[in-house]
Amino acid sequence: MITISNVEQFKDAVITLQNNISDNLFIINSEEIYFTNIIIKIFKDKTDLELKSFNENVLYGHETKFENLLLKASNFPMMGDIQFFLIRDSNNLIKDIEKYSKNLSSIPKSSVIVFFISDPNFSKKKHIIDFFKTNGEIINFKKIYDNQLSPWVKYISNQYGFELDYKTTQLVTELTGNNLSKINNEFEKLCFHHGDSKEIDEKTILNHFGINNEYNLFELQNQYGKRNLNKVLKISEYFSKNSSKYPIQIVLSNLYNYYTKIFQIHSLNKSNNAEISQKIGVNAFFLNDFKNASMNINMKETVKVLDIIKGYDLKSKGISTTTENNRILTQLALEILG
To answer: Residue 171: its pLDDT value, please?
Structure first.
């Protein structure tokens, strides 16, 4: 089993698959759709364009019966040397691998079957792993956490010809979150709109990365930090009108985390910037914004704000209140900043 946890391992796996497919049975396990799409493209590129209708089969696990898959895969390609069966969402389908293991191991080498799954507990499927040790190959992508995003952002940006400096890379991770598919889509759009110029800075990222530069979660917390009530009310009203995009629980959770970091800054007032940045989990590029906000509210007031946000979180869930959700953010702003 090949386990991929960083960019270099991924690049090696891509090159290996592009150059030589030595097995005809694969399991690709990934919680990140970006990896799934890349691997599918590699296999699809192996089929000649004029033979795709004959030899390229993209299937879905919930629509596929194992018996029918084996029946088709046991036949030789009508034309060409190899045929592919690329099966997305195969979590349920591979449960029957042990039952059909003898049939799978005897399919001709001209049929390549690739099961794409998303299973964080796959390492516990010992019978499947043992079968593939001698009959195929498993590529297992480990979950990427927020603190591991930067190399992936740089890798994806490089695929579109962009070179990002440290600050711009960190800004992308702050704006997009832990979602490589979204990061890839944003760079794809940026490539389309940015023409031949491959020089991008923080302003370019803010203008193009799928957020409203005036109405977003980062701007809301920044305006809370500046105690700018009018601006907070405007953003809160925008969020309330667009609650499908900005669910109230997400907004409240973001604000709670924001004020928690301000509380931590007060408790770390004798630490240097590097220590504070590491302990509260804020990139050094954004730390000054949090420190400036901490000057506008003392520790005792911060604790009070955290309690207020907790109360409004209960209100948003309909506990001990009749307040409509479209008024909660406005009332919150008035109580904290009014």
So the answer is: 79
3-state SS class at 331: helix
Task: State both tokens at 196.
Answer: 């031949």
CB-based contacts of 12, cutoff 8 Å, min separation 6:
none
pLDDT tens digits, one per residue of 267-306: 998 888 888 888 888 877 678 889 999 999 999 999 999 9
98-147 residue pLDDT tens: 899 999 999 999 999 999 999 999 989 999 999 999 999 999 999 988 77
pTM comes to: 0.65
Nearest Cα residue to 57 out of 85, 25, 36: 85
What is the β-pairing status of strands 56-60 and 83-88? parallel
Residue in 69, 43, 70, 72 with CA at minimum distance from that of residue 56: 43
Strand order in the sheet with 2-4: 2-4, 137-141, 25-29, 111-117, 83-88, 56-60
Question: Read out DSSP for 258-321?
Answer: HHHHHHHHHHTTTS-HHHHHHHHT--HHHHHHHHHHHTTS-HHHHHHHHHHHHHHHHHHTTSS-
| Topology annotation, domain 147-208 | Helicase, Ruva Protein; domain 3 (1.10.8)
Could you state, in order of their start, the residue ranges of all structural domains in the chain? 2-143, 147-208, 217-337
Exposure of 64 in the CB half-sphere (CA atoms within 13 A): 26
Q: Is the pLDDT of residue 215 over 80?
A: no
Fold annotation for 2-143: Rossmann fold (3.40.50)
**What SS3 class is residue 35?**
helix
Nearest partner of 25 among 78, 60, 69, 68, judged by Cα: 69
- Topology of the domain comprising 217-337: Zinc Finger, Delta Prime; domain 3 (1.20.272)
